[in-house]
Amino acid sequence: MARTNRRAGTTAPSLTFLGATGTVTGSKTLLTAGGRSLLVDCGLFQGLKSLRLRNWAPFAVPPGSIDAVLLTHAHLDHSGYLPVLLKHGFAGPVYASTGTRDLCKILLADAGHLQEEEARYANKHKFSRHAPALPLYTRQEALAAMKSFAPVRFRRATEIAGVFSAVLQPAGHLLGAAIATVDVAGRRFVFSGDLGRAADPIMQPPALIDSADYLVVESTYGNRLHVTGDPAADPEAMLGAAICRTVARGGVVVIPAFAVGRAQALMYLLWRLRQRRAIPNVPVFLNSPMAADATRLYLQHASEHRLSAEQCRTAFAVAQIVKTPEESQALNMRAGPMIIISASGMATGGRVLHHLRAFAPDARNSIVLAGFQAAGTRGASLEAGADAIKIHGEYVPVRAEVVKIEGLSAHADYREILAWLTSFKRPPRHTFITHGEPAAADELRRRIEETLGWTVSVPDYRDRVTLD
């Protein structure tokens, strides 16, 4: 039986929810047992300022008291807080799949670099309330964090801190993404991480799990269904239609895209559209050094996705790589038509912000949103129809056509999550719903209770649950 207990000192296993509660960012769950502590995921809070401020606040427990970190995957909302944890005293190993380790080397370094650039820009233009504005961590601190990584292979048991036994299995969400099973004190804990989709055009489907005593499952799309079987809502067709409309206007298509996973899926769809001559043959630019680096890893981790080596080489060659800041700036002076894929996917930072400043005010252009937009992000404002968005301290008018493409998500929807849960041969003693906006988490809770009859709850931020 699970019960909420905010008091420390118990020797029974416990879970403390330190992120991804009431939001899709900041994933962190502390599993304590046998006098040892394992932090499952170490994510950065993103989006609303009230959430981002948590990145700067003292951590809920002394970082030095944590014995190890286990990552489910490399996205910053699951890994991006690592350099901060290390800076404040964590000294243990960071266990992750080899794919996650390889991607973290790219993602964390880029996050540090962007934070340094944003702090430098804020100081130069004096629009920050802080004098001076400082990065949460630097690129050098991010690279130093890689020394703590201990890569593990899928489906191999790994002993952690003398009491935990962990097994990672593919989650299908992106390269290296894992479902984590942790055995300790005679109990089995399963952490879904971010679940992929069985019909993903690139990634293999998530592994099926047969048992857990306690389950922590994501709910990003806990109240939504991906549209399937409707040609009008097919993501490839929607992308092609948006491009054709924009090219006919002589405009520019700007696609904010997650550098890992989404950028590659978009290039693959563009290649397919070109193969069928469904879009005009206009220039395509991939303007994200991180996305370019991540794309090269698809050949190294071929067992995790559906593409052959030849398909990787030809499909990803559809885009010209933008290498330097000068080349990036030159795109903003170039006339359309053209297509620009640039990070970040929620328009929270990176080179895409400069493209939005340049192209959002022109009605000939289009902004294609190709993924989930968390509350408080510029992407969410664009999705909601904002007539202006704030970039680098100034409001930029939005006159470009904004197109939201739903079906490209790498997250399972509620029907796909329920289908994955049916692989369990027996119900978990308790299921905890995390990593979702409040409405999505509660809707998934209700569906699991009514459909499967399981005992389910949605924890609050910093809730500690002692497990009998």
Note the topology.
Blueprint: E1 2-4, E2 14-17, E3 29-33, E4 36-40, H1 49-52, E5 68-70, H2 76-79, H3 82-87, E6 94-97, H4 98-125, H5 139-145, E7 149-152, E8 158-160, E9 164-170, E10 178-184, E11 187-191, E12 214-218, H6 235-248, E13 252-256, H7 262-275, E14 284-287, H8 289-300, H9 309-315, E15 320-321, H10 325-331, E16 338-342, H11 352-359, E17 366-369, H12 378-383, E18 388-391, E19 394-397, E20 401-404, H13 414-421, E21 430-434, H14 438-452, E22 456-457, E23 464-467
Parallel strand pairs: 4-5, 5-6, 6-7, 11-12, 12-21, 13-16, 13-17, 14-15, 14-16, 17-20, 21-22
Antiparallel strand pairs: 1-23, 2-3, 2-23, 3-4, 8-9, 9-10, 10-11, 18-19
Structural class: alpha/beta
Kindly state the percentage of residues in helix: 25-40%
First-last Cα distance = 6 Å
Q: For the largest beta sheet, what order do the strands appear in spatially?
A: 1-23-2-3-4-5-6-7
User: Globular, elongated, flat, extended or rod-shaped: what is the shape?
Assistant: globular
Walkthrough of the structure:
By secondary structure, the chain is of the alpha/beta class. It has 2 domains: 281 residues, Ribonuclease Z/Hydroxyacylglutathione hydrolase-like (Metallo-beta-lactamase, Chain A, 4-Layer Sandwich); 174 residues, Rossmann fold (3-Layer(aba) Sandwich). It is 30% helix and 21% strand. The protein has 14 helices and 23 strands. The strands form 4 sheets. Strands 1-23-2-3-4-5-6-7 form an 8-stranded mixed β-sheet. A hairpin with a 7-residue loop joins β9 and β10. The longest helix has 28 residues. The N terminus is likely disordered.
